[in-house]
Design a protein that fits this description.
about 55% helix, Glycosyltransferase, 8 strands, about 375 residues, single chain, two-stranded antiparallel ribbon
């Protein structure tokens, strides 16, 4: 497999001996704004995905493993005795005042699940297992859809690979099944409560990171093979795609966070890279389950959005260092290049690279 042309210089610029710094002014890290566990969890997952793709690049692997260790150490440090994670820290490593975040818990559970399942050395997997075991114990009473989707996906992955996973985690298979059932039931119930003839969604509004909801159900379907799960995953994803430009559009149009999207209104700006990445994540899963090339094209258009396939026809990324602008406004890109946007771009590239090769091989 040809190696992708990808650059991690900006990610490394944002990473110090503590972890990943959250924000930038332009390309320069804003240290006074500190760190978030959210971003370090995303970065851990990203490194795992690229390690799989860059097996023939020893220098890049060394760099990725070096950053991965800092992100894994950050999650180990940020986790509290009750299994939850403190999310926001000042640059001097002191915790900021906050209410605990279900989204942060869900993202962290997924990241350490992937570390536990995909890393091939026992030392790192031992740490991931310790974090994951403690975090899953905190997931029994989640209330919000996105955190439930993360945990549903994590439990489904663990159950699908149970021969190699559950025993060393010291978690009963029945516990994982029950947690997955609870999360899936909550998502399906929310969908049925809010769905109408012209609104195929889990909530009254489409807000941020929407693709995570159908994605979680697709992962659950891989394990439980329930037709209802697949039907709702597909129906909700198709609705999201239509709201973000449609299957036949030449470009992706993310829902703006200046007002979001309801039955009656749709905000066009400030478009966020994370929403494009989450759509790519869900469409990629749909493609592999349904074998429908329309979803493959959605993933590739998500990648194109970063390179100028957007409303302004302006690239948001600089391939020379792997940085990405924080959003797209009515007057053009936000020139700050923080952690979330850069990670979203790099993850979309990781999703799109195998599909680009697949398309090329068919030509």
């Amino acid at each position: 497999m040809p190696q992708p042309n990808i650059n991690f210089d900006h990610l490394e610029r944002l990473t110090d001996d503590t972890g990943l710094i959250e924000h930038c002014l332009g390309r320069i890290p804003r240290r006074k704004e500190g760190y978030s566990t959210d971003d370090n969890a995303r970065a851990l997952w990203l490194c795992i995905e690229w390690i799989e793709l860059l097996q023939d690049e020893p220098s890049e692997l060394k760099r990725l493993y070096g950053m991965l260790d800092r992100y894994l150490a950050f999650l180990l440090w940020a986790q509290r005795d009750d299994g939850w994670f403190h999310n926001n820290f000042y640059y001097d490593r002191t915790p900021e005042s906050e209410t605990r975040s279900e989204d942060c818990l869900g993202r962290s559970v997924w990241a350490v699940t992937m570390a536990y399942l995909k890393l091939n050395d026992n030392a790192r997997r031992y740490v991931a297992a310790e974090i994951l075991r403690n975090a899953l114990s905190a997931c029994r009473k989640l209330r919000f859809a996105r955190s439930q989707a993360w945990v549903l996906a994590s439990c489904s992955k663990l159950l699908m690979e149970k021969k190699n996973s559950i025993s060393s985690l010291e978690i009963a298979e029945d516990e994982l099944k029950q947690l997955a059932e609870t999360c899936e039931h909550s998502l399906l119930t929310a969908y049925k409560e809010h769905r109408t003839e012209d609104w195929h969604w889990f909530e009254k509004q489409m807000t941020y990171a929407n693709g995570i909801l159908p994605w979680g159900l697709f992962l659950s379907y891989r394990y439980n093979r329930r037709n209802e799960t697949l039907r709702i995953a597909k129906e909700s994803l198709d609705f999201l795609i239509e709201k973000m430009g449609g299957f036949n559009s030449s470009s992706i149009r993310p829902i703006g966070n200046r007002g979001w999207c309801s039955r009656h209104n749709r905000a066009d700006w400030d478009q966020q890279p994370i929403d494009v990445m989450k759509l790519a994540l869900a469409a990629n899963e749909a493609y592999h389950i349904l074998d429908d090339s329309a979803y493959l094209q959605v993933v590739l258009r998500c990648r194109d959005w970063f390179y100028g396939g957007n409303d302004h026809h302006i690239p948001l990324v600089d391939p020379s260092d792997g940085s990405c602008c924080d959003g797209l406004n009515s007057d053009g890109p936000n020139q700050n290049r923080g952690a979330e946007s850069t990670l979203s771009y790099l993850m979309t590239e990781a999703l799109a690279h195998p599909l680009k090769l697949e398309v090329f091989e068919k030509i």
